[in-house]
Amino acid sequence: MAQGTVQVTHGGASRWRRRSGEYPTLSAALEAAGDGDVLSVAPGTYRENLVLLHAVTLRGPEGAAAGSVRIAPLDGVALTVRASAVVQDLYLEGADRAAPALLVEEGSPEFSDLRVHTRSASGIEVRGGARPLVRRCTVENPAGVGIAVLDGGGGVFEECEVVAAGQAGFSVRGGHPRLERCRVHHAVGAGIAVTGEGSGLEALGCEVYEIKGSGVQVAARAAARLTDCSVHRTSGDGVTLDTDAVLSLSGCDIHDIPENAVDLRSRSVLTLSRTTVRRFGRNGLSVWDPGTRVEAESCEIHDSTGDYPAVWVSDGATASLDSCRLHDVPDALFVLDRGSRADVVDSDLVQVRNTAVSVSDGATARLEHCRIREAGTGAWFRDHGSGGTLSDCTVDGVQTGVIVTKGADPVLERVSVTSPAEAGFYVSAGGRGTFTGCRVTGSAGFGFHVLDGCRSTLTGCHTERCARGGYEFAEDGPLAEGCTGDGPEARLTAEAGPGSAVPAGARPGVRTVTAVQAVVERPAAVPGPVPEPRAREAAAGAGRGAGEVLGQLDALVGLDSVKREVRALTDMIEVGRRRQQAGLKAASVRRHLVFTGSPGTGKTTVARLYGEILASLGVLERGHLVEVSRVDLVGEHIGSTAIRTQEAFERARGGVLFIDEAYALAPEDSGRDFGREAIDTLVKLMEDHRDAVVVIVAGYTEEMERFLTVNPGVASRFSRTITFGDYGPRELLRIVEQQAEEHEYRLGEGTARALLEYFTELPKGPAFGNGRTARQTFESMVERHASRVAQLAEAGTDELTLLFPADLPALPAPC
């Protein structure tokens, strides 16, 4: 057969039709061919627009190399099929941006081993009533859609591959195709897109990956079913549903998604079974809007790479999880907004860095027979209208078992919390909650910690081995009936109301309350399931007058400008107090301060003295100092930061809250850092309790300037900034002399001069600690003195007390 010719083997019923012929062009061969004829095309490039109107077989020659027959017209459709033809082993090229390379309009043709390379509207387009069977075909179309099924088209695509598409890899609008073991990759917009009412798709064993956009999109009343499919490595969401879309995922694997693994909204419905969602940057399941719902059974969601909840339900949507497992995520389930609901049955929520279940803004969550382990907080019902039910659930190895705050009112039945690092159940800020048959075992804090007079109801609850006590209740707090706890440390006492009684014969070490109001033996001071305070707290000098404290301030080495600032502020407060006593208006003086400067310049000491001065003037009740830093205020899970900040503020009530290195609460690359929550909480507390606590924030000058801009309310709360300058050599020498005098040492001949030279030459890099450096220098001299004197057989008073230049440590290397 000559190059560029077409051999036609006629296969008609009549004997005279069973013959062969050769034609110079494909068009001529097709014109002569009829149903059943076989057209074998010689290798070559055919610049023709072919139309198949009969049930013929069109194929490349047997044994020829792949792609040896190229159908490549200069414009228009390369191949149009309007019959149940068979097309094999051809290479189709399209150059018309307005037309597909292969157009299938009628019949049930069969295509196999085609390669479509085009820069046109679509590589393969199926429309009308066509139902092709397409096997092992490859489509590459960097300019448009890979494969499009439109307007009632359908068909089956087996082991096909879209290797590149400038738009969707596989697009369905009004059609109903079936994909089996296909691959779609390097597409733009979506790997598979199913859009429009009446559109449907079924995919079995397919893979969608390397998509610049979403992996699978189903929208505008379309429906799809994916079974044993994989979606991964997209730049957008893995799977999206929008506007009454319906999708079923069974046995699928969605992974390595930088955004939401699955996002659905606008009344869409998603059903998942035996599906895995892993390594996603935002939500594993993101469910929005009234009427939108997801139902998941035997699914696994894990290994989040971002800082977002694994399952997010909001704006009135609903989610149902049955026999699912969520693990290694920042938050497992977050339900918010009135009308939103989540139902979780027989599921595991494990290794959750923050909160396993959060319910907010009037949402509802129902958990039955679930297991929560290794989480920051087991469940948190956050605010008014938020509630739901936890029944027959276990919570183990968490910071706090269940938190109820700000008017939330859940029902908890037979919930067991084991080994929490803080409280088992914590209620504050107007939270309520009904607790029936709940248990706390092995808490490092309290079993039940109910603050602020919250009117929770406890019935038949029990605590065991709770380090700080089984129950900690504020006065006029919850109602408890039939609750028990072991050990003498149980803090539950009974305040009998009408008709109430503490049963006689209660077991020793167990306090039982029946129909009574529970109160505490000592009032709870602060809200929050927090560890024992790590912050340092310094008591004010008892009864010292302002003059005495100011005298101690004046005795500090250096700090002349600081002393002037504090005296000026103190004078303003004192005169204001006297004017009020005289019936005159007093100028408003904001007492909160910013201390800036390097470490070791006396900021903490001055803060402590400032608190004492204000107490002596009657401005503060106690004047004590509570010193905290970021680690004391910022929690490891959502919500614990606000609680820790409230707790620190409460301990400082009547005194000074000193926040060292405050700028660490707002790092420059903070992202979703919880430090901002501490700042927001602090600003509100300063406003709500403006006369109860004086707040001083301290840190390096430049960093503190940035800190004052992180919240609009921060700068307005702090009226005055006091700068602590670095100590000079003579001031450092004076500190060493004071240390020596205090510890009964003396500086020998030449030692003061040697120290002055030492501090002059001492590198002033980041490690320089000002007064701390002077004290460390003195301690080093004492150690070297001890090593020297210990070698003497006998030592008199001079030998035991005199420090010489030889006792000075070596100068550190420059930083």
Radius of gyration: 39 Å
Distance between the first and last residues' Cα: 85 Å
Sheet-strand content, in percent, reads: 35-45%
Counting DSSP E segments of at least 2 residues, the number of strands comes to 68
Sketch the major β-sheet.
24 strands, mixed
Regions with little confidence, pLDDT below 50 for 5+ residues: 12-18, 488-537
The secondary-structure class comes to alpha/beta
Question: What would you call the shape?
Answer: elongated
* Number of helices, counting only DSSP H or I runs of 4 residues or more: 13
InterPro entries: AAA+_ATPase, AAA_lid_6, ATPase_AAA_core, Beta_helix, Carb-bd_sugar_hydrolysis-dom, CbxX/CfxQ, CbxX/CfxQ_RuBisCO_ESX, P-loop_NTPase
Family: Belongs to the CbxX/CfxQ family.
Protein name: Right-handed parallel beta-helix repeat-containing protein
Keywords: ATP-binding, Nucleotide-binding, Repeat
Molecular structure report:
- By secondary structure, the chain is α/β, with parallel strands linked by helices.
- Helices cover 18% and strands 37% of the residues.
- The chain contains 13 helices and 68 strands.
- It has a 24-stranded mixed β-sheet, with helices on one face. Strands 25-27-30-33-36-39-42-40-37-34-31-28 form a twelve-stranded parallel barrel.
- The longest helix has 22 residues, at 560-581.
- The chain is elongated and about 125 Å long.
- Residues 12-18 and 488-537 have low confidence and may be disordered.
